Amino acid sequence: MTDAPAPIADVRIEDAGEIRLLVLDRSERRNALTVGTVDALRAAVTGARGAGARAVVIAGEGPSFCAGGDLPSLQAIAAEGSAIVSDAIYTSFHGLVRAIRDAPVPVIAAVNGHALGAGLDLALSCDLRYAAPDAQFESTWLKVGLIPGMAGAHRLPEVIGSGRAAEMLLLGRRVDAETALAWGLVNGIAADGDVRGLAVETARRLALLPPLALQRTKAAFRRRVDHGLEEEFATLGAQQGQLLTSPEFAEATARLSRRS
Fold first, then answer.
1. Mean pLDDT in the chain?
2. Other C-beta atoms within 10 Å of 227: how many?
3. What CATH number is attached to the domain comprising 25?
4. What does the pLDDT average to over 166-184?
5. Which segments of the chain does DSSP mark as H helices, in order?
6. CA–CA distances in Å: residue 129 to residues 38, 71, 92, 135, 216
7. Residue 188 lies in domain
8. pLDDT at 5
9. Which of 145, 186, 199, 255 is 20 to 30 Å from 16 at the Cα level?
């Protein structure tokens, strides 16, 4: 891979021929998502086709794929009021999900270590998901007084079924790589641990297919799995704005800060 000159808002872009690799590069924060990181990732996904890419891989630097939303960053936004929070969610976090959905090329998640909260939602937004043997998936939103803000509760039952989704969403069940594969949450496990390599190899296979037919097949698939997504976003924006400015969120984040 050929590195881009420098990371932009903690996202490293590596273009190699027809494959674009996007690496979340905040390993000191376990690649937790800020608004700036999400905006950079969205722009990189949106610009992939124009850069000559025919498939995109999203990965995380270090021992985690993505540990969720960056709580200090979210607290700072919440301090500005629920209307600002709702706008940030619509523009940034929902915009990233839309960008992955609408991208004319397949987007693949390469999950190593933790995919928690927004990290799980990010993986669910992708067209294909692969896991390292150490991958762990958990919907942690409820633990901090929030709802899955990137439509994870909308997508998860479609992927693994309503009963299993209820265990993850309501009971906070953490799922390992083998269980994720058995449940259909991931498409495969990198036996040698090189999940990024497995995802890139899959991307290369996709890049060999007729691009227009691939684009339209993805669009047909996404129309099915994302039915009702815009209505869900409209509800999520308002509700998450209220929750992020609630005492429950403040208390939960303070409790987590004391533990760290």
1. 92
2. 12
3. 3.90.226.10
4. 98
5. 35-46, 71-78, 82-88, 94-102, 118-125, 152-160, 162-170, 177-183, 195-207, 211-225, 229-244, 247-259
6. 19, 25, 22, 11, 20
7. 2-194+210-259
8. 38
9. 186
